[in-house]
Amino acid sequence: MTPPLPAHPFVDTFRSIWADPTLDGLMSTLRDDVVLIQPLSPVLNGKDAARLAFRRILHQFPGLRGEVAGGLGDGNLVFIDWTMIAPIGGRDIRIPVIDKFTLQDGMVTERVAYFDPTPVTRAVMRSPSTLLRSAAAQFIRRG
């Protein structure tokens, strides 16, 4: 039987960032050539694309945060089990997420997120204010 992977220091960094996410915090662990793969979005290549996407998400979902259940890793591979909490339509929508990170020198080179986007899309469709923020977020530019 293979022993379980040990806890990884990146898990605590991730936990701290997602407790009260800011654009600077979300960007702080990403390499310039990062690749981010997730449902509901095209693949994001590079830190500039990531910055724009995170800016839009934070605008669309004020109060977005995450709770980390745990994580483990070995060397440059880290898995984090967490719950994304998106305030939508007066309630907190909880989305279980598994993220797989590839690191280089402690910085993220790739993240693949695994989650079911259905609860988010349903909640957004029932929330006029979130729909308006979503539409407005499409006009956010780099800057």
The count of DSSP E runs of length 2 or more, i.e. the number of strands, is 6
Show unreliable segments: none
**Could you say what the CATH architecture is?**
Roll
Taken from the alpha-carbon principal axes, the silhouette is globular
Domain count, please report it.
1
Q: Strand order of the main beta sheet, please?
A: 2-1-6-5-4-3
Question: Could you walk me through the main structural features you see in this protein, from its secondary elements to its overall organization?
Answer:
34% of the residues lie in helices and 38% in strands. With 143 residues, the chain is an alpha+beta fold. The N and C termini lie far apart (51 Å). The model has no long low-confidence stretch (mean pLDDT 88).
